[in-house]
Amino acid sequence: MSYPIMLDMTNKQAVVVGGGKVAERKIRGLKEANANVVVVAPEITEYIQQLADEGALVWRKKYFSPDDVEDAFLIIAATNNREVNKAVAQAAQPYQLINVVDTSAQSNFYVPSIVRRGKLTIAVSTEGASPTLAKKISREIAEMYDEDYGNYIDFLYECRQYILQNVGDSHKKQQLLQAITDEEFRKGANWEKEFQKLFEQVMGE
Asked: Which residues form the Siroheme synthase central domain (predicted)?
């Protein structure tokens, strides 16, 4: 059984070995997390080439060698060659995070299927047993939580800060925090107006 966490990759070096479509998907996620991405591959996709041209990542146009991962915080072996992926896994140190896309046994972490809605992140993992099932469940979740949830989460964040700063009574604080996460509240036409009414009502009790 794995231990789920949310990992802050901001300005941390992530080395992706491989330049195909699988590597591209991994790179997209790492760039969203603001990682410093290094790609090691003799050939890369058009998307990866575009990022390299823009200076958004470093491309080492070469075959893998162990020194490529010496300074990496996180490593992903994403080539279509099992022997190369195995070599990447063997080069990783015990303190480094390593994911081998085609062999979960050589990995010490898994990349879950992700649904993002602004600050809301929902991760689905089968611990490598069936990435296909994880993606299927993610699609179902994505239908449940549409794009509007991103705005809703931003609103909740602002409300929470306001409540924490302006409400001293712990019971009223909890009452407000729970009320704004109610589904009926979320479906309202004007969250700001409804929150103001709710705030005045609760604080006036």
From this structure: 117-143
**Does residue 103 sit in the same domain as residue 135?**
no
CATH of the domain at 34: 3.40.50.720
Give the DSSP H or E segment for 24: helix 21-32
Distance between CA atoms of 102 and 79, rounded to whole angstroms?
9
- What are φ and ψ of residue 78, in 5° steps? -130, 35
Same domain membership, residue 12 and residue 98: yes
- Contact criterion met (CB below 8 Å) for 68 and 61: no
25-70: pLDDT as tens digits: 999 999 999 999 999 999 999 999 999 999 999 999 999 999 999 9
Residue (of 111, 117, 182, 180) closest to 143 by Cα position: 117
Residue range 136-145: mean pLDDT, rounded: 93
CA dihedral (32, 33, 37, 39) positive or negative:
negative
Q: What's the rounded Cα separation, in Å, for the pair 2 and 161?
A: 33
What is the per-residue pLDDT for 33? 93
Residues 121-137 as b/e (b if ≥16 CB within 10 A, e otherwise) read ebbbbbebeebeebeeb
Structural domain boundaries, residue 137: 112-145
Write down the pTM of the prediction.
0.79
